[in-house]
Specification:
Layout: H1 3-12, E1 21-22, H2 23-29, H3 36-45, E2 56-57, H4 70-81, E3 86-87, E4 90-91, H5 93-96, H6 102-109
Parallel strand pairs: 1-2
Antiparallel strand pairs: 3-4
Helix pairs in contact: 1-3, 2-3
The chain binds a DNA duplex (13 and 13 nucleotides) through α2, α3, β2 and α4.
DNA sequence: TCAATGACGTATC
DNA sequence: CGATACGCCATTG
């Protein structure tokens, strides 16, 4: 577990319920431009359930976990439980895309 | 070393 | 909307 992973997870933990963020967006907020693939690795490696990993989807709003894996269904369930509108495996981004407040951004910078 | 591999992103057709 | 092609980059064998 290196520093980048910690940073990534800390950013993910800021995503509020019924909102989603993209891998690229998380990478940017974590100060890791073009680090989208690292975000996916960090989430896959993470075992802490208190981190809302399910609120991270790809830039198209689609769940990126292979449908063959069990966590794919789990992610859908968790999102629906929060009231996130899902059309198939795609979320309504115009409604649920996370837009961090200025406060949140400043808080991140101080981390 | 080096090629292959992703829970990615963007551009093009 | 679906399919393909690249770029990207840490990790893996």
């Amino acid at each position: 577990m290196n520093k980048s992973y910690q940073k990534i997870l800390s950013v993910v933990s800021l995503i509020p319920p019924s909102c989603v963020a993209s891998y690229g967006q998380i990478a940017d907020l974590a100060g890791l431009p073009r680090g989208a693939r690292m975000v996916s690795k960090a989430l896959k490696a993470n075992r802490d359930d208190s981190i809302p990993w399910h609120r991270v989807v790809n830039s198209q709003g689609r769940i990126s976990i292979p449908a063959s894996e069990p966590s794919f269904r789990l992610q859908m369930s968790l999102l629906r439980e929060e009231g996130v509108e899902l059309k198939g495996s795609k979320v309504n981004l115009t409604k649920h895309h996370w837009q961090p407040s200025l406060d949140t951004l400043l808080f991140e910078l101080s981390f």
